[in-house]
Specification:
By secondary structure, the protein is mainly beta. The chain has two domains: about 5-85, Immunoglobulins (Immunoglobulin-like), CATH 2.60.40; about 90-180, Sandwich (Immunoglobulin-like). It is about 0% helix and about 50% strand. It is built from no helices and 16 strands. An eight-stranded mixed beta sheet has the order 1-3-6-5-4-7-8-2, with no helix packed on it. The chain has an eight-stranded mixed beta sheet with strand order 9-11-14-13-12-15-16-10, with no helix packed on it. The chain is elongated.
């Protein structure tokens, strides 16, 4: 095994995980072991000779080793690591709370429980459309991003901003960001 995508997920589990390796075979008995001081085994699915997929189990906060068994018994000897982070991530406020509909605003998202996973995303959703942008870890209470362009919509849009530390499972307690249309005024002078 050479890679696990994503390499992290919340303690509640339910993350769609892709394990990359070589010489995988569809035996119908594939299992995936997440191990630390305790073990959790889930069913795996064969996708190709180089890809196995599974759903992560619930687990305590821990860095686990992940191994695959094609027969449900003999696990690979070269594991990859998977981080279970606390699922109690909260988005509390945005600064600023508004910006132009064309995007480009430097946004600071304040909350709690943020972890530097290297896979952080912010989602701006108006109930119909959702735009997802990469975010940067600042500290356990802040992440930063650049607001996306919502100009394909009407001139004013209210969005809810959520954060995912693994690119999949977003918070459900977001704050509102208000997009406004750009007002351009032209002045005309005439010289007499």
């Amino acid at each position: 095994m050479s890679q696990i995508i994503p390499a992290q997920g919340p303690t509640t589990g339910n993350t769609h995980v892709t394990i990359v390796g070589t010489k995988f075979v569809d035996t119908g008995e594939i299992t995936v072991l997440f191990a630390n001081t305790t073990d959790s085994i889930v069913s795996g699915s064969f996708s190709s000779p180089s890809v196995i997929t599974c759903i992560s189990p619930p687990f305590e906060v821990a860095l686990t080793t992940v191994r695959v068994a094609l027969n449900g018994q003999q696990y690979t000897t070269s594991p990859v690591t998977y981080l279970f982070y606390d699922s109690a991530i909260v988005v509390q406020s945005l600064s600023p709370a508004s910006g132009p509909i064309t995007g480009g605003t430097q946004e600071t998202i304040t909350g709690s429980g943020f972890v530097d996973t290297g896979n952080i995303y912010a989602r701006f959703s108006n109930g119909t459309d959702s735009l997802v942008v990469a975010a940067t870890f600042v500290d356990s209470n802040h992440v930063a991003c650049i607001t996306p362009d919502f100009s394909q919509n009407v001139s004013t849009v209210v969005t809810t901003v959520e954060v995912a530390l693994n690119g999949q499972q977003f918070t459900d307690n977001g704050q509102q960001f208000y997009y406004y249309g750009m007002l351009v005024r032209y002045l005309s002078y005439s010289w007499n």
